[in-house]
């Protein structure tokens, strides 16, 4: 007789679950515009408390722009172009309180809607979260002087456009006429005796186009399009923004370079000098031989 022994084999399956954690430190880099000295010092203290950095100039490293109110400054334009949050100083104070005391983490959306300063700015649709990168593609901006060009050339370049200073690099008029790019001649800030530039202005006029005040470049960035602002084909005179004779809104809008001081306008034609470093200049209009006051910060 033959006996068969059966051996029962049991298999035990062991599954290992590996849980991984990744710890990342939030990066905070901000600059500010139009902040008074005391508030700027407070901002620096708050940002240092959360291991962040304060920088004087806008760069691609900036994660936020800090303002008390929104105005047409170059830093604001850069923040819009890079689609970065524009926050109130209180955001950093609340963030510091969260780090030190464990208070509720502040939501950026509760602090990224600062008031808009200036009468005209309040009338412009302030658009965020849109792609502005190619707004000025195939556009050539012609400024009279190098100093005028330097204020806006960085903004223009980021939006895909190019710019030249006529006094430094004039172009033959036939090249202007044949250029595949849209030519935008920026209205000079002063009366000029430059004969070749005057010929350029006459060419623009014969085309039925207009010179573009420098502030319209900024307004186009704010609105996110060139339908009206920064459009030489658009008849600006047909839209009345001001009841004062010979006062165009685009010529009295405040445009500031990177600075903490700004002129406040009570209306489109009344801008007062507030700080000693505000340079008041004038925009000369070759079309009607008149001078219109324009206020700049440099």
TrEMBL record:
<feature type="domain" description="BRCT">
    <location>
        <begin position="28"/>
        <end position="94"/>
    </location>
</feature>
<protein>
    <submittedName>
        <fullName>Uncharacterized protein</fullName>
    </submittedName>
</protein>
<dbReference type="GO" id="GO:0030870">
    <property type="term" value="C:Mre11 complex"/>
</dbReference>
<dbReference type="GO" id="GO:0007095">
    <property type="term" value="P:mitotic G2 DNA damage checkpoint signaling"/>
</dbReference>
<dbReference type="GO" id="GO:0003684">
    <property type="term" value="F:damaged DNA binding"/>
</dbReference>
<dbReference type="Pfam" id="PF16508">
    <property type="entry name" value="NIBRIN_BRCT_II"/>
</dbReference>
<feature type="domain" description="Nibrin second BRCT">
    <location>
        <begin position="131"/>
        <end position="232"/>
    </location>
</feature>
<dbReference type="InterPro" id="IPR043014">
    <property type="entry name" value="Nibrin_BRCT2_sf"/>
</dbReference>
<dbReference type="InterPro" id="IPR001357">
    <property type="entry name" value="BRCT_dom"/>
</dbReference>
<dbReference type="InterPro" id="IPR032429">
    <property type="entry name" value="Nibrin_BRCT2"/>
</dbReference>
<dbReference type="InterPro" id="IPR036420">
    <property type="entry name" value="BRCT_dom_sf"/>
</dbReference>
<dbReference type="InterPro" id="IPR040227">
    <property type="entry name" value="Nibrin-rel"/>
</dbReference>
<dbReference type="GO" id="GO:0000724">
    <property type="term" value="P:double-strand break repair via homologous recombination"/>
</dbReference>
<dbReference type="Pfam" id="PF00533">
    <property type="entry name" value="BRCT"/>
</dbReference>
């Amino acid at each position: 007789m033959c006996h068969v022994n059966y051996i029962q084999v049991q298999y035990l399956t062991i599954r290992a679950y590996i849980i991984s954690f990744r710890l990342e430190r939030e990066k905070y880099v901000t600059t500010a515009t139009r902040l008074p000295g005391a508030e700027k010092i407070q901002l620096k203290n708050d940002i240092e408390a959360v291991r962040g950095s304060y920088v004087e100039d806008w760069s691609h490293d900036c994660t936020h722009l800090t303002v008390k109110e929104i105005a047409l400054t170059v830093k604001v334009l850069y923040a819009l172009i890079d689609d970065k949050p524009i926050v109130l100083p209180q955001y950093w104070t609340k963030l510091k309180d969260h780090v030190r005391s464990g208070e509720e983490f502040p939501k950026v959306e509760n602090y990224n809607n600062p008031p808009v300063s200036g009468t005209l700015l309040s009338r412009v649709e302030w658009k965020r979260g849109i792609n502005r990168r190619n707004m000025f593609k195939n556009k050539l901006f012609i400024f009279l002087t190098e100093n005028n060009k330097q204020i806006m050339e960085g903004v223009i370049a980021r939006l895909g456009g190019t710019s030249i200073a006529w006094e430094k690099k004039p172009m033959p008029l036939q090249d202007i006429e044949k250029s595949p790019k849209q030519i935008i001649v920026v209205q000079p800030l002063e009366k000029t005796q430059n004969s070749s530039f005057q010929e350029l202005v006459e060419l623009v006029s014969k085309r039925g186009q207009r010179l573009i005040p420098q502030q319209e470049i900024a307004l186009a960035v704010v609105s996110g399009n060139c339908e009206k602002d920064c459009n030489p084909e658009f008849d600006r005179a047909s839209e009345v923004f001001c009841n004062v004779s010979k006062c165009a809104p685009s010529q009295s809008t405040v445009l500031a370079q990177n600075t903490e001081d700004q002129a406040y306008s009570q209306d489109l034609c009344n801008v007062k000098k507030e700080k000693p470093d505000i340079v008041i200049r004038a925009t000369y209009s070759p079309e009607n031989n008149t001078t219109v006051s324009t206020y700049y910060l440099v």
